[in-house]
Design a protein that fits this description.
The two termini are about 20 Å apart. By secondary structure, the protein is mainly alpha-helical.
Length: about 140
């Protein structure tokens, strides 16, 4: 089951990245559609974070592996959630969020890079077949 965690979670992140890109590109020309894309992106990213925190990170902790990666991921998740809420609040008030979108983009790039090159490969390396199977079974009930 090598690289299954990396492949699964990276695929999800790629879709979320595309939603975010579309949201930013349509912001000026179609604010209604742009907002719908942001809402889908936010919901998707929150779900992705929940899957990591409730399913993946606990398995990694059970394997007694990489506490620093777990802590780093949790900290990044908290920052992402705060930025998402901030932007959502700005959009609700119809206040320009261009700079805040850029901040979120930079945070996302860092987080995705950390996940893709550190967290997921560590999970693929440290989690046994049973742990990976549990993660998959919980993600797809």
């Amino acid at each position: 089951m090598s690289k299954i965690i990396t492949q699964l979670f990276n695929t999800n992140l790629q879709g979320l990245e595309l939603l975010f890109i579309a949201y930013r590109r349509l912001k000026k020309d179609d604010p209604v559609m742009s907002r719908q894309l942001f809402d889908k992106f936010k919901t998707g990213l929150e779900l992705h974070i929940r899957h990591e925190e409730q399913r993946l990170l606990p398995e990694l902790a059970l394997a007694s592996a990489a506490p620093e990666l777990i802590s780093k991921a949790q900290q990044e998740h908290q920052q992402l959630r705060q930025q998402l809420e901030w932007i959502e609040n700005l959009l609700d008030k119809r206040i320009d969020s261009l700079e805040d979108d850029r901040t979120l983009e930079l945070m996302l790039v860092d987080h995705i890079e950390n996940d893709e090159f550190e967290l997921y490969p560590t999970c693929d390396k440290m989690l046994n077949t049973d742990a990976v199977t549990r993660v998959l079974m919980e993600l797809y009930p």
